[in-house]
C-alpha cells in the first residue's frame, strides 16, 4: 500500500478513538498481490457496540464501489481499528468477513495513538472453508502514475 493509505488508515483510527474506525481499500490486482492506492472512510454503522465492532452499511459499500469503478479502481480490501486491543482478527471479525481473497487490515489504537497495523488475507474457496492468513504490509512511496485520493468520507 502507499504511504498515504497507511498513514490515512492509522489517522482514521486515532480520530475515531475510542470507537472503531472502518473503511475500504481501493486499488488493483498486481502479480505480487493487491496494491492499495486509496482509502475511503466509511461510517461505522454499529450503534450497539461501536467501541469493539464495526459494520459498513450495504448502501455505503455499493456507493464506494461505484465511485471506485469510475476512477478505474476496485475494492482490494477493508480496514478497521481495534481501540485498546491487539491488531488481530477476532471471532466477530472472522464471522463478518465474506470477501474471499481480499485483505483485511487492522490497526491497534492504544490510548488514542495508532500502534501496530496488521493485514490478513481471507482465503479459501467457500464460506465454509474460509480462513485468515497473515499478510505482510509493504508501504511504498507513491509513484507518479499512481494518483491516490485523499481519505474521504461517504
Strands, helices and their partners?
Elements: H1 3-16, E1 22-30, E2 33-42, H2 58-70, E3 74-83, H3 91-96, E4 103-110, E5 113-123, E6 131-135, E7 152-153
Parallel strand pairs: 2-7, 3-4
Antiparallel strand pairs: 1-2, 1-3, 4-5, 5-6
Most strands sheet: 7 strands, mixed
Q: Which stretches of 5+ consecutive residues score pLDDT under 50?
A: 144-154
Which structural class do the helices and strands define? alpha/beta
Order of helices and strands: HEEHEHEEEE
Classify the helix fraction into a percent range: 10-25%
Q: Strands across the major sheet, in which order?
A: 6-5-4-3-1-2-7
Number of helices: 3
What spatial form do the alpha-carbon principal axes imply? globular
**Strand segment tally:** 7
Mean pLDDT: 91
CATH T-level topology = Cytidine Deaminase, domain 2
CATH superfamily: Cytidine Deaminase, domain 2
Cα-to-Cα separation, first versus last residue: 21 Å
What is the alpha-carbon Rg in Å?
14 Å
Counted up, domains total: 1
Give a brief outline of the structure.
The chain contains three helices and seven strands; from the N terminus they run H-E-E-H-E-H-E-E-E-E. The protein has helices at 3-16, 58-70, 91-96; strands spanning 22-30, 33-42, 74-83, 103-110, 113-123, 131-135, 152-153. Strand 4 and strand 5 (113-123) form a beta hairpin.
